[in-house]
Amino acid sequence: MNIYKYAMKMEKDSENYYRELANQTEDIGLQNILKMLTDEEVRHYNIIEQMMKSKASAELAETDILKKVNNIFIKIKGKNLVFNFDLPQINLYRKAQEIEEKSYKFYIEMSDKVEIESQRKVFLKLAGEEKKHMFLLENLVEFVSRPETWIENAEFNHLDDY
């Protein structure tokens, strides 16, 4: 399988996983976060598909997902909601974290293998976005593991600074 098809499969699998997770949670804020991650994976898929088809330069626009997620968490905090997450659900978010880490490593590795400079830059940008997703999911895991203390954690307030 070539690197583009493999990358597209990874992105499609991630998209489906986030969609499944969004359907499993009842909280609208968490659903929105997971839907944003779904949309990010669709964007990644599309840019990789474009690179594969044209072999020409492609460009990936910057994302502000961490800022948007930060705003959602602020809204959740303002509602003083009580969450009761069980270990299996937390493990689902940890699995998503592992998927993002695998994608990050893949894109770093592939950036050294492509010959077209613009595509190398896209792979490095994709790696950067996957790293943002890893950071987001790390915070999400911490949030669902212990929401009372996480909301007060100073790191939460810096999601958009990442």
TrEMBL record:
Domain Rubrerythrin diiron-binding, first and last residues per copy: 5-140
Signal peptide (from-to): none
Database matches in SUPFAM superfamilies: Ferritin-like
Cited InterPro entries: Ferritin-like, Ferritin-like_SF, Rr_diiron-bd_dom
Gene3D superfamilies according to UniProt: 1.20.1260.10
MF terms in GO: metal ion binding; oxidoreductase activity
Record protein name field: Rubrerythrin
Organism placement in taxonomy: Bacteria, Pseudomonadati, Atribacterota, Candidatus Phoenicimicrobiia, Candidatus Pheonicimicrobiales
